[in-house]
Design a protein that fits this description.
The complex is a heterodimer of chains A (about 190) and B (about 250). Chain A is mainly α. Chain A contains eleven helices and no strands. Classes of the chains: A mainly alpha (about 190), B alpha+beta (about 250).
Chain lengths: ~190, ~250
């Protein structure tokens, strides 16, 4: 198996004990990612990830991004499980997504529509509605702040696909949020 | 014609908008996008929408509802005490050598098996090689449900096996199952964690061998037969008494 290289950014634990401590420091982020993938399997996914990381730590290159490496193992573990179960993790209606930005309300500025009134619950609902492939790409970029190249390795797709998923995912998120905002406004008006 | 040209132009620009928003576009692409945006309100709206979604997520992502819960303390404790934390693994070069050695032994044993069919020691050696390879490559997925594992072996591989459950009293958990390629792929291989150590139970159909205890390649093997099947339990030789585990397996498969 080739050595994975993740240029840039923190965490370069050469010592085994440092490696374990550094890996455990990423536990919450990994657990949350596992929860998004499969709440029922989150514990098992994270445990598998750590077992593989510890067994394979010789393949980790000190000076590179440990967090990205751990996320890659997590996603590989998830994909293997899905493959074992004969399911396809990617279910994307691309045409519908392509239409999202076109269908969006253009009378108010998008920033105003969203930043003014988005509630956590709306955002949570919108994220839950997104196809997992898009949601994960957007989350890895905007929350975990990985580079496109790191996300490509984590998701095992080309960089171009990463950018496309992020773009489509964000526009879909926007579409959902604006739709929810309209619904809230309408309900308020009627009440 | 003007609209058509602008649409074609927009399509090219769409490819660049995400890196433009994330400040990862090259200087050339940056200038191209900005030049286009000066005369294209549709692309301005598209970029504003994507940027608004990104900024909204960034702004709210640390709220507990969005971010989700932290890892449970029990999981943290479990991971901090994984067996691997105290076991130094060989460096990758030595790992390759070890795998190669296992394969050589497995091949040698396989050839020997052809000429000495029926030898419990040869069979055990063959399975020990398989066991070492699998322990090396298999993550603990357990505890698994024995009924589901039996169903999976039946539906995927046609292996009809009564899968012994784990035992809390023995510290035994069912953690994996696969088809072993010995006996033309008809052997079921069940993996258990026994107080942290991985042990294997092989179930070979249409095979009847007398009970035997063998010690080979640093491992203990226990053989017994029942209902036209031979069972082989393989564990690393650590001085621990396998008898309670063998008794449990036998009772579960009677």
């Amino acid at each position: 198996m080739p050595v994975l290289r993740f240029p840039t950014r923190p965490a370069s634990p050469a010592d085994p004990h440092d490696f374990e401590s550094a890996a455990l420091a990423e536990l919450d982020a990994l657990y949350r990612a596992a929860l998004r993938l499969s709440p029922a399997e989150a514990d098992d996914l994270v445990q598998d990830t750590f077992v593989k990381a510890i067994r394979g730590r010789a393949r980790f290159e000190p000076g590179t991004n440990l967090r990205a490496w751990l996320f890659t193992i997590l996603m590989n573990t998830w994909r293997n499980r899905r493959r074992d179960a004969g399911r396809d993790p990617v279910d994307v209606d691309s045409e519908r997504v392509e239409l999202a930005a076109v269908a969006a309300d253009t009378t108010a500025s998008p920033e105003d529509l969203l930043l003014r009134s988005t509630l956590d619950a709306d955002l949570k609902a919108a994220l839950d509605r997104m196809p997992p492939a898009f949601r994960e790409a957007v989350w890895l970029r905007d929350v975990e702040e990985f580079t496109y190249a790191e996300i490509a390795r984590i998701l095992d797709v080309p960089v171009g696909t990463v950018m496309s998923r992020i773009s489509r995912g964000r526009r879909q998120l926007y579409e959902y949020l604006t739709a929810q905002g309209s619904a809230v406004a309408s309900a308020g008006g009627r009440g | 014609v003007g609209i058509l040209i602008r649409m074609l132009c927009c399509r090219e620009i769409h490819r660049l908008t995400t890196p433009y928003i994330d400040a990862e576009a090259s200087q050339t692409d940056l200038a191209t996008v900005e030049r286009h945006l000066r005369r294209c309100p549709a692309c301005q709206r598209r970029i504003a929408a994507e940027r608004a979604a990104r900024d909204t997520l960034k702004r709210h992502c640390r709220s507990p509802l969005i971010e989700g819960p932290a890892a449970p303390e029990a999981l943290r404790t479990k991971l901090a005490n994984l067996p691997g934390h105290t076991i130094e693994l060989p460096a990758s070069r030595w790992r390759q050598v070890a795998v190669a050695a296992i394969l050589v032994v497995a091949c040698t044993v396989g050839v020997l098996a052809i000429f000495t069919q029926g030898s419990a020691t040869v069979l055990a050696a063959q399975l020990v090689a398989d066991h070492v390879k699998c322990v090396f490559a298999t993550a603990d997925r357990g505890p698994l449900d024995p009924g589901q594992v039996g169903d999976r072996l039946k539906s995927q591989y046609g292996l009809d096996v009564r899968v012994p459950p784990g035992s809390a009293a023995l510290g035994l958990r069912l953690v994996g199952a696969r088809r072993c390629l010995s006996s033309d792929g008809r052997t079921a291989h069940l993996l258990y964690s026994w107080s942290g150590e991985t042990i294997s139970l092989y179930v070979i159909p249409d095979d009847n061998r007398p009970p035997a205890d063998v010690h080979v390649m640093g491992h203990d093997g226990r053989l017994w037969s029942r209902h036209n099947r031979t069972y082989v339990l393989v564990a690393q030789e650590t001085g621990r008494d396998l008898t309670p585990v063998v008794g449990h397996m036998q009772r579960a498969t009677w």
